[in-house]
Fold this sequence. Notes:
Layout: E1 2-8, E2 18-23, E3 26-32, H1 47-64, H2 69-82, E4 98-105, E5 109-115, E6 119-124, E7 130-132, H3 136-141, H4 146-150, H5 156-170, E8 193-198, E9 202-208, H6 210-217, H7 224-234, H8 236-249, E10 265-271
Antiparallel strand pairs: 1-10, 2-3, 3-4, 4-5, 5-8, 6-7, 6-9, 9-10
Helix pairs in contact: 1-2, 6-8, 7-8
Amino acid sequence: MRLSLATEPASSDRANEDFIGATPDAVVLLDGAGTPADLESGCSHGVAWYSHTLGSTLLAGMTQRADSLTEILAAGIKATASMHDFCCDLSHPGSPSATVVMLRRTAGTLDWLVLADSVLVLDVLDADPMVICDERQALTGSRYRASMDAAVGGTPEHLQALSRYMDAMRAHRNVNGGFWVAAVDPLAAEQALTGTVPIDRVRAAAILSDGASRLIDRFHLATWPQALDILDQDGPEELIRRVREVEHGDPDGSRWPRGKIFDDATAAYCRI
């Protein structure tokens, strides 16, 4: 695989809660679920620590073990929990969590796993791109978005609505009928979307946090084939630059209502 990648925090004064890591045969992306300042998490380390620690653990597991991606994710969640269960309250409903995308090349196949709302796009031969995203979080969140989307972005009213939204979502995290993310319970790995594709059917793969995919799936200013063209011709930096341009052009979320006016954005592009 020939890999290019880029990541950029939402703002320079906050840690990037995305994680991206790669080896010659594996790529891992995590998007940490940020917590508003007025909501407690029970963890003294924070979301960036969680996503970066779990991400590096998963990448090591993918290169050292032949287990399934589901098994590697479960073991990674368990191992990361053990690193702070003695000093943090992991039973807290706001304990740090993250989306996960894992991609691994074997002799003749590409194995993939997607948990929550980061996106994997496979540019397959003789067909439309295969877009894989776990939509359970978005479907659950649609029940609670109205007041947040109606508020002017960046105002105290919007921040308060965002906190109420995230507080409401905690009750649906990692429960049947809700949505699933990597957090504390290794059983969440069993809820991930997984698959295998013959490697000779795939030209390239794109892995995007939702801060990078919003150019396509929230702003609707590019199609998935167009996004693949941007990544192929101009690289992940250009995709993120276009996202930032749109965000700056809609600073109050009036055209595109969104919880985060700016979001951490990460994109990886693999030529197979």
